Amino acid sequence: MGFRDFNFEESLTNRFRLTKLTLSSRTRLEYRLQALEILCNLPSTYIFPMLSYSARTKFLTAGFIVATLFTISACSNSVAGKRADSAAREERVQVHPISVKLKELRRNVESVGSLFALEEVTVSSEVEGKVDEVLADIGDRVERGQALVNVSTIELRLALDQQRALYQQARARLGLAEESDDLKNVLDAAEVKKAAADLKESEEAFKRSQLLLEKRLIPRQDFDQTDARVHAARAAYDLAIQSVQNLRAQLPQYKAAVELAEKKLRDAVIRAPFKGQIKERVVSPGQYLKVQTPVMVIVSMDPLRVRLKIPETMAGWIQIGDRIQVSVEAYRDKTFTGRLSRINPSVDPQSRTFEVEALLENAEGLLKPGFFVKARIPSGKVDQAMAVPQDALQYSYGVYKVCLIQGDVLKETEVKVGDLSSEEVEIVSGIKPGDMIAVPVKGQVLGDGAKIQIDQ
């Protein structure tokens, strides 16, 4: 039997039939796959002579079927792709048409600035002494009159006791027992009364000596001594009156010294001058303080001041009492409101701007002094201008655009914007009154050349 007469198919079939009796299903499958791999790697000129006529017929039929299936699949995919492309081209964007019109637009004054505390003060010590206790620290909220630092009071109490003793001594010399007592006449002073009594006694003795001298019952020397005692008593009386008058004049001074000592004792407790927060603490327990030594810095947080620079060209647009809207980077979703409280009457010749100040309520404590702010002041100036809804505006790479409606197709056009409000944007140039622009329905994306469908 020649090579051409060899029935390759029958040989393989017999081989697999033989293995079917002795091998497992997995092993038989491996053999069949190996045989198929051998056939696939042989050239057709080698395989076809090995096959019988019936095998050749089966092989060609299978190839024809496979080729036909590939052709049908390719055609089907091509048709589906064309249909998808056609559907994509026919998809339309739903929009609301808006006619551009001139309308009255209230001008806004926009500027940037910073926040400042309503009040900021460095609290200093009014007495000398050692710090016993520090009662507040950075960030603490304090009320007006709240204790911040306690200074040692030992020396201050001793000084107060000394001044009180001097005051009471002066009152005693004046014969004032009760605090409510007052010396209305210097002759009522105990010291003056004693001097007056001595003078009276001396004068009576002088009169007696004079009578005795006339009767020559005493020597002249005794009379002269009596006369000298009268003059001395009169001088002592005058001196007592003068001393009491001086003491009476000094009494308020002694009282003031007592009150000053009491004040220093009270000042040993350093207190907050107003409601606010501690910005800085500069003392520690045990530190010795001199008069005017700084201990803490306090800032008033509610309300806060906002200061802005306004171009001189807008000087006539604003006035005290105008409402102001402020935003900060820390709270981008919040807007803080206030009122203009001050306008600087002069313009900076370098920047051609003037400063304004507004007060912002800060009851929640969200704002902090030093924040950078963006501010908008609705002014009283009204102009005729084009304005479109903010939803109609598109922004990309520093360029603002709107989509004009031309038939059923959109055309992007670049525009220059002006003032912005909560809902509309002023258009300075790029479109004209009467133009139809598109506002996309929620979820729709506009683009140049896109076909549209008007949303009813």
SSE map:
Blueprint: H1 8-22, H2 25-41, H3 44-50, H4 53-90, E1 93-99, E2 102-117, E3 120-124, E4 129-134, E5 141-142, E6 147-151, H5 154-174, H6 190-214, H7 220-267, E7 269-271, E8 276-281, E9 288-289, E10 294-299, E11 304-311, E12 323-328, E13 331-343, E14 353-360, E15 372-389, E16 394-396, E17 399-406, E18 409-420, E19 424-429, E20 436-440, E21 452-454
Parallel strand pairs: 1-21
Antiparallel strand pairs: 1-20, 2-11, 2-15, 3-10, 4-6, 4-9, 5-8, 6-7, 8-10, 11-14, 12-13, 12-15, 13-14, 15-19, 16-17, 17-18, 18-19
Helix pairs in contact: 1-2, 5-7, 6-7
Explained architecture:
The chain is an alpha+beta fold and 456 residues long. The chain folds into 3 domains: 8-86, no CATH class; 102-115 and 301-454, Efflux pump adaptor protein, beta barrel domain (Elongation Factor Tu (Ef-tu), domain 3), CATH 2.40.30; 153-267, no CATH class. The chain is 38% helix and 32% strand. The chain is built from 7 helices and 21 strands. A 6-stranded antiparallel β-barrel has the order 2-11-14-13-12-15. Strands 3-10-8-5 form a 4-stranded antiparallel sheet, with no helix packed on it. The chain is rod-shaped.
